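Record 1 of the preview.
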Amino acid sequence: MLYCATFTADDRVRLKEPSRRTGGGGRHASFMALDNRTMDMTKQQMERLAAEWRYVITDMICRAESGHLGGALSLVEIVETLYYKVMRTDPANPKWPDRDRLVLSKGHAAPVIYVALAYKGFFPKDWLKTLNQNGTKLPSHADARFVPGVDMTTGSLGQGLSAASGMALAARMDKRSHKVFCIIGDGESNEGQNWEAGMFAAHHKLDNLIGITDYNKLQIDGFTHEILELEPLADKWRAFGWHVLEMDGHNFDDIETTLAKAKILRGKPVMAIAHTIKGKGNKAIENKPESHNIKVSDKAAYDKYMGALEQRDFTLPY
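->
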């Protein structure tokens, strides 16, 4: 099913306009501090890279002997689109003040962020094989203290949207034009703090804040509709005063179109509900509750998860 945002003629004009930057200059005076080579990647190249990332993420978590594989794999296309097509970032200057921010509120999915950052050049790809091991700079949950490019330490579910709302308000107060993106989980949406943050962001009309719900319909204890029904999720966010868009979270065209629309909507924060599949691309865990946190105790288990990937013709980058 395709959930595609549509554009008016005025929207298309705005998308072609250069952004009005403040505090810029030098190399960052341009519309986006993105490598033109990544902006020009074809859909086929993006799909190939997504398959490679799934291969690497599965290996990383298997090497660590456990980890949150399902929720990382459901985000691959979304995170790849954010870093390669949507967000302004600078690997050479991770703290660049005018960069776009990304808060991964579902911090247990950190491996997909780590892979994106490594492939974009924020840190060496060799770090990836040390996930959650003694002495690593890549703990199981996203950690801003150790990882260049991570904007918020997360893992305690329900807190990321509050932090992202504060970042968005601060950006407005500082008269900066960057966007703040926040990825939340559907199981995490059971947390009341998300809805407090939702009221806060709507009250302050934080239209520089874009939320993304990874709606893969599964959480640690089972299917979301069995644990705590979220529907009508889109109507809930609208009732809280947000613009709401929906997208197929595994379709690159739909993701890019929807997030482009989200960036130009004004007057309210935006929630993009991404319909995804937990464990996408790995048949051993795809759409299964046990995908939330896997255990890998021996080579047979390693072979099981690596062998279940839809595409395996890759060489590990470490």
